[in-house]
Amino acid sequence: MINKLSATLISTLLCANLSGCNTVTEPVNVDSRYETYIQVGQAFKHTHFNNIQGTPITLNPNKNKLVILFATWCSDSQRTLKELQASPLLHDSSVQIIAIGREENSTTLSKFNIDYQLPFDLVADPDRAIYKQYANKGVPRLILLDKHNNVVKTLIGEQANILDQVIW
């Protein structure tokens, strides 16, 4: 009985901790512990990646870009990607979408994509080499770039319908 109660308590605490995809319990807009290391108007530091198939990809100079920093285990990231699947953004030929898996490798992202069938490039960031240049914590992070790869807006997608704020 005690072991069952302990297991239930541990499980409940773990789920509560993971539900926000980090350890912050306050709303994002009032939490100064979320740091974004790139500001509106600054150039995005990465323009070349290798997707999970190993194919080189480049940020398209003729398109606006939506860069999503996410984690496969994060419920907020999962929700945001599902919302993106139903969004007109997915079919907007003037937008390039790239999703970068924080602390993910090509294998975990490939397995994740079996369920999600995302029609855009996924990039592995197993050691946070990319992520840590843009933020200290919190996923999903959405970074909107213009055609010149300058930041237009940054968003933390911990609430539903974050894509409504994706406007260039």
UniProtKB/TrEMBL annotation:
It comes from the Bacteria. It holds the Pfam family AhpC-TSA. Residues 40-152 form the Alkyl hydroperoxide reductase subunit C/ Thiol specific antioxidant domain. Gene3D superfamilies: Glutaredoxin. PANTHER family: PROTEIN DIPZ (PTHR42852:SF13), THIOL:DISULFIDE INTERCHANGE PROTEIN DSBE (PTHR42852). This is Alkyl hydroperoxide reductase subunit C/ Thiol specific antioxidant domain-containing protein. It comes from Pseudoalteromonas aurantia 208.
